[in-house]
Structure formats: structure tokens, C-alpha cells
Amino acid sequence: MKAQIRSLGENGTEKLLGEIHDRMVRSSNIMIYDVEESKSVILSEKISNDKEIVSNFLRTVDVNDSNILKVVRVRRIGIKPRPIKAVLSSPQVVNDAAKTTS
Q1: 48-95, pLDDT tens digit by residue?
Q2: pLDDT score at 17
Q3: Edge-to-edge, what's the strand order for the sheet holding 29-32?
Q4: Which residue segments constitute the domains of the chain, with CATH numbers given?
Q5: Residue 74 CA to its chain's centroid (Å)
Q6: pLDDT in tens, 23-44
Q7: Any idea what the Cα angle at residue 25 is, between residues 32 and 31, rounded to 5°?
Q8: What's the pTM?
Q9: Cβ contacts of residue 33 below 8 Å, gap of 6+?
């Protein structure tokens, strides 16, 4: 492994470390698809509605909703509902939720 990293060179090593960092950050995320978006025109109500959807999901898999750090819709508005990305407190919380759903 060390030989492989050395052969990458300085630029390649930076890219590899960046990729590892990105994966670590994303490991605390869950994505929820095909959930209708709130019809409200008030942004705070839309966010509150999405957070409630994530909270309800987490309760069904026995995960405390206090582990939710951030909830956002990703992509642009289109024909299909945009996915919900929830940032949770740790990768372990994501793993606990995944184990319960499978």
C-alpha cells in the first residue's frame, strides 16, 4: 500500500487524501428518495416538513431523531420529487439505521 501511495506522486496523494476525506464526510449521510415535496411556499415550513419525514423514518428504525444534524433537498426542482439528504451525527447512526431496514 505504501508503495502504491508513493507511486501516485504528490498530486495523486493529495487527490487520494481528498477522496478519503470526502468519503468520511459522506458516510454520515442518508438519502431518502421518492418523497413528495411540501406544497408550502414558505421555505421554513418546507424544511420543517422534510425534517419531520426524516424523523419519522428514523423512529421506524429505532434511531433517535436527535441524531439529525441537517436536512436538505438535493438537485433542482423537476418532474420527480428531489431526494432528501439527511446528515446524521455519525456513520454509526447510519449503519444502525441500515441494519434495521435490511
Answers
A1: 999 999 999 999 988 888 999 999 999 888 889 999 999 999 999 898
A2: 85
A3: 29-32, 84-88, 68-73
A4: 28-101 (3.30.70)
A5: 10
A6: 888 899 999 999 999 999 999 9
A7: 5
A8: 0.78
A9: 83, 84
CA distances from 27 to 10, 37, 65, 80 (A): 26, 25, 17, 25
Antiparallel, parallel or unpaired: β 84-88 and 68-73 = antiparallel
Answer for the pair 87, 50: CB distance below 8 angstroms, yes or no: no
Nine-digit cell at 88? 446524521
Q: Which three cell numbers stand for residue 96?
A: 444502525
Structure-block grid coordinates of residue 13: 496523494
Please report the DSSP string for the chain in residue order. -HHHHHHHHHHHHHHHHHHHHHHHHHTTEEEE-S-PPP--S-HHHHHHHHHHHHHHHHHHTT--GGGEEEEEE-S---SSPPPEEEEES-HHHHHHHHHHH-
Match 418546507 to its residue by C-alpha cell.
46
